[in-house]
Specification:
Number of strands: 12
Helix content: 10-25%
Largest sheet: 5 strands, antiparallel
Distance between the termini: 40 Å
Strand content: 35-45%
């Protein structure tokens, strides 16, 4: 029994050290309907939760372009999506939606990113200054 408890505690501690979740991080959006509600970071990937709040207009719809990217604001390096976790790329969705977008793992030192759809698209979503606090900063 002691071994089981010790193993469980060590497993929970290991997960806590390797995974970080940021709820409602600081950010600036070019569109008042778009907000990053959560960022999950693990050694294997980064998952962005982008929430779109629809207006009362029944025709209000949203989609996410697969050419979107995360940009490390300190280095300018771009990270492109690996997967659409709960939606299909370039598919229109009605009403409020939360899009889960998986990206490659960000370096541990990355502390501020921008989410950007291609600027060639009309009404592209751009969310800047997304804060991902780094321990020791």
């Amino acid at each position: 029994m002691k071994k089981f408890i010790l193993t469980t505690v060590l497993l929970v501690m290991a997960l806590a050290v390797t995974a970080q979740t940021y709820n409602n991080p600081r950010q600036r959006s070019t569109n008042s309907k778009v907000k990053i509600t959560k960022v999950e970071r693990t050694p294997k990937c980064t998952v962005i939760y982008l929430h779109y709040t629809a207006s009362n207009n029944p025709a209000d719809m949203s989609l996410i372009d697969p050419r979107s990217c995360l940009i490390d604001e300190a280095t300018g390096k771009k990270y492109f999506p690996v997967a659409a976790l709960n939606f299909k790329w370039n598919t229109w969705y009605k009403g409020n939606c939360t899009y889960k977008i998986q990206f490659p793992a960000l370096p541990k030192y990355t502390s501020v990113v921008t989410f950007q759809e291609p600027l060639t698209e009309k009404n592209a979503f751009i969310v800047t200054n997304i804060a991902l606090p780094v321990k020791g900063q």
